[in-house]
Amino acid sequence: MRHARPRPYPAATRQTQARSLVAALAFLTCWAAPDASRAQSYDVSVTRTAGDFYKVLGKDIVLQTRRCDVPATAKTSIFKSDPDGLRLSFVDGAQDCDVKAAYGPTMAHPGEFSVTVSHDADDWYEMVGAGTYVKTWGCDRPANAQPATLSLGVANAGRLEFTDGTRCVVEGVYDKLRI
Fold first, then answer.
1. Which among 159, 152, 148, 172 has a CA at the least distance from the CA of 110?
2. pTM for the complete prediction?
3. How far, in whole angstroms, is CA 154 from its chain's centroid?
4. Tens digits of residue pLDDT in 133-163
5. Domain ranges of the chain
6. pLDDT tens per residue across span 26-74
7. Is 21 exposed, middle or buried, given 0-12, 13-18 or 19+ CB atoms closer than 10 A?
8. What span, in angstroms and rounded, lies between the C-alpha atoms of 159 and 47?
9. CB under 8 Å to 103, separation ≥6 — which residues?
């Protein structure tokens, strides 16, 4: 004896079909426009610390711009991340700036490290090829892919010493953030 499969009521069938259609449309929308789900914007207040570097107030985050010359002290801005890139827009309409990268503090292990650095802006040295910046205090020594020794203690405080004997106080080490 064969068991007949129960047939759903017509109303239940229509509901199931409607749900399937909605799910398919949602999938197609996400598939067709994947970039829309990745766009983000943040209200921030920034202060220009050096050259193309802007510190986000209240956060230990630094934004590195491309040729942005807006003087800013606690200036209200919007930081945007979308498929076209990163942007810093000043609310007063002063300028929109392309952001090269955002950096946050990293906790490196204490010790001495041989590094190659380039001076990027006042007190900011890029560790060549590492996506990492060293924030110094009162150090303006020019450097273009110069060898140096980075000595770090607890909380990334330490010194950056160049081969000519110049020593700079290190305030922190910053890695590129994925946004």
1. 152
2. 0.70
3. 24
4. 999 998 989 999 999 999 999 888 899 999 9
5. 38-103, 106-176
6. 333 333 444 445 679 999 999 998 888 999 999 989 999 998 988 888 8
7. exposed
8. 25
9. 61, 62, 63, 64, 133, 174, 175, 176, 177
